[in-house]
Amino acid sequence: MNEMVTIPREEYDRLQAAAEDLADLQSFDRAKAALAAGEEELVPAEFVNRLLNGENALRVYRDLRGLTQAALAAKAGVNRVTVTEIETGRKQGSVTTLRALANALDVALDDLAE
């Protein structure tokens, strides 16, 4: 079955644009569903801008969650001094430590790793 159809270029462009619009709408619907299901979250622009400006991700996410260094350390099972050293850049933190902190903050490990 090797049938061909010829349509004017304008009609092809219109159909192409409609297909792209449909894909965008489907992506939007998936994003809204993920937000409603609690699978994704919106991060306020203030915190996004801090990350984009190079501020330490651990500090930004800790502030986003409303935790003190001591509270985060206790929740993650790490020393408060370790949290301070990672936030100030004196230490990078081991993968194990960063994973514990990421879990305590409910973010992906990649969000904290530089």
Describe the structure.
The protein is built from 7 helices and no strands. α4 (69-76) packs across α5. The chain folds into 2 domains: 7-41; 45-112, lambda repressor-like DNA-binding domains (434 Repressor (Amino-terminal Domain)). The longest helix has 28 residues, at 9-36. With 114 residues, the chain is mostly helical. Pfam families: HTH_3. This is XRE family transcriptional regulator. Residues 58-112 form the HTH cro/C1-type domain. InterPro entries: Cro/C1-type_HTH (IPR001387), Lambda_DNA-bd_dom_sf (IPR010982), TransReg_Diox_bact_type (IPR050807).
Query: SSE order, as H and E?
Result: HHHHHHH
Helix coverage percent: 55-70%
Q: Structural class of the secondary structure composition?
A: mainly alpha
Share of residues in strands: under 5%
Q: What is the architecture of the largest domain at the second tier of CATH?
A: Orthogonal Bundle
Number of helices: 7
Topology summary:
Blueprint: H1 9-36, H2 45-52, H3 57-65, H4 69-76, H5 80-88, H6 95-105, H7 109-112
Helix pairs in contact: 4-5, 4-6
